Queue: 4 jobs
Job 1
Amino acid sequence: MPDMPILGESEKKSPIAQVAVIAAIVGTIAGLGYWVTHRPGATPPEPVTEVAPAAAPVDAVPAAGATAPSAAVDQGAPIANAPPMPSAAPAMPLPPAPEGKTHSGPRTLSVTIAGPMETAIVGQVGREVGGPLTQVINRSLVWWVKVPGDLLKGDSLSAVFEEREGQEPLVHAVRFTSRKFGKTFEAFRYQGKGEAHAKFFQLDGSSLEEHLTDPPIDDYEQITSLLRDGRRHKGVDFKAPVGTPVRATFDGVIARKNWNFRGNGNSIELQESGGQGRTALYLHLSEIPKSVKVGDTVKRGQPFAKSGNTGHSFAPHLHYQLMKGATVVDPFVSHKTARASLPSEDRAGFDGAVARFKALMPAETVAGN
Ligand SMILES: [Zn+2]
C-alpha cells in the first residue's frame, strides 16, 4: 500500500520488519513492496525533531516510564518478549481475502493478543491492511492503556473497519478487553449534528480523545500521533486541512522561523515568556504571514500562522512539539486537557450507531484472567 497518509514517522517495527525482510527474500512481491515503503530505515520525516541524538533511544518524556515505547514492562505474561516468529511466519502468505483490494462495506476484526498486536491483526486481515489498521487502532487504544506496555497475552481486541482506496482504513468501532485492568473499553465513531468531523465516543458519552484546552490549532479531524503511542515521534500530529489557523499555546516570543526548511517546511518556534520556559515548535505550516518576525511577542490563543503540508510531511497536518530545553515534553501532560461529551441531542443517533456496530462485532468477552 504505497504512501498511506500516515502522519509522522513510521512506527517502530523491529520484529515484524525483520519478518517482512525474510518474507521478501523468500519471494513475496507484495511483501517486498511493503518492506520498501515501510522499512524502519526510511528517511525520518522530521529531521529537526531529532534534537538530542544522544537521548535518542526513547523520547525523553518526563512522564517517567509512561510513554517509553520500547520499555515494554509487562508484569504478568510478557508478551513483548514472546517470540514473534512462530505466529508471524504463518501470517506471511498473503491476506485471507484472495483477490485483495475491494472489500466493500464494513469488516470485522476480532483477535486475541498473543504477541505484538500487529502480528495478531496482520494474521487475520493480511499485511497490506493490517499494518495501517494497527496504527489506526493504536490511536484509540493509547487513550486507555499503554501500548505495548499494558498489553497482555489473552487480551482481546475487536473492531469494525472499512478499507479505503489510497487511504488508511476507517475504523468505526474498537473494543479492547484488558486482562491487566480487568476491564473492557469501547469506543464508537460518530459525527454529531453540526460537527465538521466524526469523533470517537465512549458509551457514557465522553469523547475518547482528550483535547488541549489551549489548543495549538483551531479545528482538526484527528490526532494521528501522540507521544504515548509507542512510536519514536516527538510531536503531536493534528490532521487538519491546509489553512487552519494555528495559535500560541502560551504567552511567548517568536524565537525562530523556517529553520531546516526541507524537513520542517514553514515552521515557527515559540519561546514561552516566564512560566515554565517551554518551547513550542509548529511545523509544516502553509504560510507564515510576513508580519510575523523573530522577536515578536504573542499572547496565548493568538493566531499567528496557518497549518499546511510543507517540508517532509505526508498529509496536511500540524506537528506541534513541546520542549523544555532539549527535553521533549508531552503536551497532553504539560498543558491542560479536557474531554468533550456527546451533546444530548446526539444521544439517540449515537445509540443507533452503537447498536449497528455492536451487531457486527463478536459477543463480548468477559474481562478477567
Ligand atoms: Zn509530526
Note: The pocket of zinc ion is lined by residues 8, 46, 225, 233, 235, 237, 319 (CB under 6 Å).
Job 2
Amino acid sequence: MKFRTIKGVQDITPPETSLWQKVEAIARRVFRTYGYSEIRTPIIEFTELFTRGIGETTDIVEKEMYTFPDRAGRSLTLRPEGTASVVRAYIQNALHTLPAPQKFYYLGPMFRYERPQKGRYRQFHQIGVEAFGTDNPMMDAELLDMLRSLLEALGMGGLAFEVNSIGCPQCRPGYREALTGYLSGRRDHLCNDCLRRYEKNPLRVLDCKSPSCQSLKQEAPRIIDHLCDDCKEHFERFRGYLKTAGIDFTINPLMVRGLDYYTRTTFEVTSSDLGAQNAVAAGGRYDGLVREFGGPDTPAVGFALGMERLVTLLSDREGVHPPGIDVFFAILGEGLRERAFRLVKRLRSAGLSVEMDFLGSSLKSQMRRADKSGARYALILGEDELERGVVKYKRLSDGSQGEVREEELPGFFLGL
Ligand SMILES: [Zn+2]
Ligand SMILES: [Zn+2]
C-alpha cells in the first residue's frame, strides 16, 4: 500500500467511533450538570507556551514534544496537554473579565513524541477541565466530585482517590532546600536525568519512574510537613469538603505531579478495573500560571484523563453496538430507483435513518444487507407496488409483512 499513517498514530473507524461518541456524550452531560462549558483551542501553539507553562525540566518538554519549525522558522509544537492552551485562551480572550469562577472543559487529540508501545500513541486523546477564579478548596472538592460522577457514569468501578498538597511559593522553597539536601547525599542513586536536574527541580525526582530514584522516595522529606499555615488550612478544608461529598481518599505525601505549574492540591484517581498502578485521571491546582502567562492573579484548578482507556474499558464491558438504522429500502429493478430516491428522502426528512441499495443488487442480497445493517424494517418497491401506489414492508425482527400506501409514509413508521 502506498500511504500509511505516520508512526504512533491511528485511525479510529466505525463501529469503534460509536464508543468514542458515547464517552464524549457522557462527559458533556456530566460537565454540564456542574456548570462547565466547552472551550476549543488550536492543537498547534508556539513552543514557548509549553516550555514556559509545563516546565523546562519535565519529561514532556525535555523528551516528548512534537516540535518543528514552520516555513517562517518559528518553533511550533503540537499540544502535549490541554492546560497551557486553555490558560493562554483565558487571558487572550479576556475571559477573566467575566464573573468568576469560569469553568471550561475540552476534549480532543494531544501529541507526544514517545516511543510507540502498546496502548501508547503519539496522537492520543484527553478530556480535561479547568476552573478559574477561586482558590476556595470547595472548588477542588467539587472537581473531584465531578470526576467521580463522570467515572461512575462510564461504569468504572473500584475508584481510589489519592490527594496531596504541594504547597505554594511561600512554603515550597523551604521544602526544596530540604529535599535537595537529602538528595545531594544520595547522588549515586539518582538516574542520569535526575542527576542533571535535581538541583534545578528536586521535586522531579519524586516523580521519576526509574527504580533507583523510586527507592529514594520513601525516606525523602515530605512536603506535607513543610506547608505554611495558609496551605495547611487549605488542605484541611479541602479534605473536609471531600468528606462532605462522601469521597473516600488517602493522602499520598509523595505525589507531586509531573508538571511545574501545580500548587497546593494535587490528586490522582485509580480504578481497580484498569490496574492500580496507572492513574485514570490526575490533576491539581495551579494558582500561579495565569499570572505567569501575563494575566491577572487568578487561581485555578483542573484535571485531565485519557480517553483511549475509557473507550477500551467501555468496549470490554459492553462490546461495540453501533446504532442500527430504521429502514432499509430495497428496489426490484433500476427503473424504480428514482421513485425510491424520492421516498427515501421523505422518510429521512421525518428523522428516520434510511439506507438504500446503490449497486443494483438482487433482492436477496439487498435483504441480507438489510439484516446486517440492523434495520428494523425493510421496504420493498417493485413494479406492481409502484402501479398500486404502495410499498411492501417487512419487519426484520419477526418477518411479519404488509403494505403501506405511499402517502402514509413516513407517518406509518414513526408510530412503530
Ligand atoms: Zn504555602
Ligand atoms: Zn530519576
Note: The chain has 16 helices and 16 strands.
Job 3
Amino acid sequence: MKLYYSDTLNPRKVCALARHLASPVEFIRVELGKGEHLTPAFRAMNPNAKVPVLVDGDLVLWESNAIMCHLAEKAGSDLWPRDARRIDVMRWLMWDATEFAPLASVFYFEHIIKPRFGIGEPDAAETDKATPGFQRYAKVLDAHLKGRRYLLGDALSIADFAVAITLPYAEKTGLPVQAFPEIRRWHAQLNELPAWREPFPALQAAEAA
Ligand SMILES: N[C@@H](CCC(=O)N[C@@H](CS)C(=O)NCC(=O)O)C(=O)O
C-alpha cells in the first residue's frame, strides 16, 4: 500500500493509525507548498487534489476517515469494530466531519496553515466566530467522555483518532479546550500512544537539512 500524505491535519489521523497498526504502507510525502497535489498525476488519484490518498492495488481511496476504516479492516483490528459498536464509530465520524472538525479546524487553519504557507496573518475575527460553536460541541464531547476512557468506552477506536485530531495543536492554535477537563484527560491518554505523538515518518536527512 502507498499512503500519500503531508504533515497536516487530515493526513495526520491516517499516518498515526498506520503507525499504530504497523500497517505495511509506504509513506509518500506530498509537498503542498510546491503544489505537488495539483499535478495531473495526483488529480488522477484524487480529483479533490487533497491528501491523504491510499493506493492498495486497484483501490485508490481518498477521505481520511474512509482510509482509516480500510487500514483497520485490513489489519483485522478492532479499532473499526465488526459488531454493533461500528455504528457508534460511524456516529462519531459523522459528528466530527459535520459538526466538530469544521469549527476546530478554523483554529488550525488560522494559526498553522496561514503562516506556514504564507497566506496571510491569523484572523482573530475568524477564530472568534468559530468559538461559540466549538464550545457548544466541545461541551457535548466533554460530557460524553465523563466515565469513559475513550469515545466507545474502554476500547480505543478510529473515532478517537478522528475526533481528537486538532488537539495536538491546541496550545499552538489557541483552541479553547481549557474549560473541558475530560477532553484534556482523554487527549493525555492518546498521547501515551507513540504513534499518536509521532505520526509522521522522519524527514530524509537531505530534506531535513
Ligand atoms: N475531507 C478530506 C480533507 C482532506 C484535506 O483537507 N487535506 C488537506 C490537508 S489537511 C489538503 O490536502 N489540502 C490541500 C488543498 O486544499 O489545496 C479528508 O478528510 O481526507
Note: The first helix runs from residue 9 to 20.
Job 4
Amino acid sequence: MSKLNKRGLTSKYLFKGRLKFKTALHVGGGKINVTNTDNPIVRTPEGFPFIPGSSFKGAFRSMVEKLAVSIPGLRTCQLIEDEESFKGKSDEECLRIIENKDADYCPTAIHKEFAKWKQNKTETELITMLEDKLCNTCTLFGSPYMASKITFHDLKIGDWAGVTQIRDGVVIDRDSERAKDRLKYDFEVVPPDAAFDMEIWLENPNPTDMGLTCIGLNEFLSEMAYLGGIKSRGLGNCRIKDLEIYELNLETDKKEERLMKYLTHTKPEDKMENISDPSHFIQTQIEALF
Ligand SMILES: [Zn+2]
C-alpha cells in the first residue's frame, strides 16, 4: 500500500530564504570527486556543491524532536524503537495493547507489532488509528505509514567562494583520546560564508504542525543550527537569512478568490499571500503551542 495522503488542499505555506554558513560545510557522500580527497562533498551533475533536502530535513527534524520532548502536551517518539511496551508479550497481547485506546505509543516506534496489526485492517481503520496514535513529529515529518506534510527542497548554492577546500583530520582513539599515529584522513568542505537558497513547503498543517515547524525555523534563525558532518569541529554552523513566508489559506470566506489566484499564476510570490512580518508570525505560532 502506498503512503496515505487523504485530504484535499486546504492550506499551503512556503518558507523561503537563504541558509548562510558561518563555518565551513561538509555534506559528504558525493560520487563526483573533483579534488581527489577521501571524503568528497555532494555535488550536482554540473559539479556545484549543494545540500540535499533530505540532509536539511534530517537536521531540522532532530532539532525539533529534541525540543518537542520538553513541551507539555506534545508527543514525539524521536524515531527511537519502543522496546519496552511489547517485551516478552505474545502476538495476541501485542494486538490488544495496540487496540487499547489509552495505550501511549507511536506506530513508527513499534513498527514490527504495528505491521502485524494492520495486516487485516481497512484503510479507514488504519487512518483512524494513525490519526489517534502517531506522535506529533511523525505526523509532521512523516512516518512509514503517512506521508510527510513538510517538504524540504534541495538547496542550490548561491554566493560562495567558487572553490572548495581540503582539510586534514586525524582519527582519534576513543579510549586514549589521543590521535592514532599515521591515521590521517582528509575531507572536502565548502568554505565559510557560503549561502544556499532554501525552500520549505508545508501542506495542510494543523496548529501543532505549524508550531513545530516554526520552532525549527526559529532555531535556524538563531544561528543555533548545524548541518552536515564533522560537527565536532564546528562545521556546518548556519542560520536562515532573508526569510519570507507565503500562505495559501482556503479555510476562509475568500476561498474562491484565493484559489483562482493560486491556480492562474505561476510564481509562488504571485500565487500566494505574503506574510508581512515573518518574525511575528513565527513567535505567534510557537506561543500557540502552550
Ligand atoms: Zn513518532
Note: The CA atoms of residues 94 and 100 lie 10 Å apart.
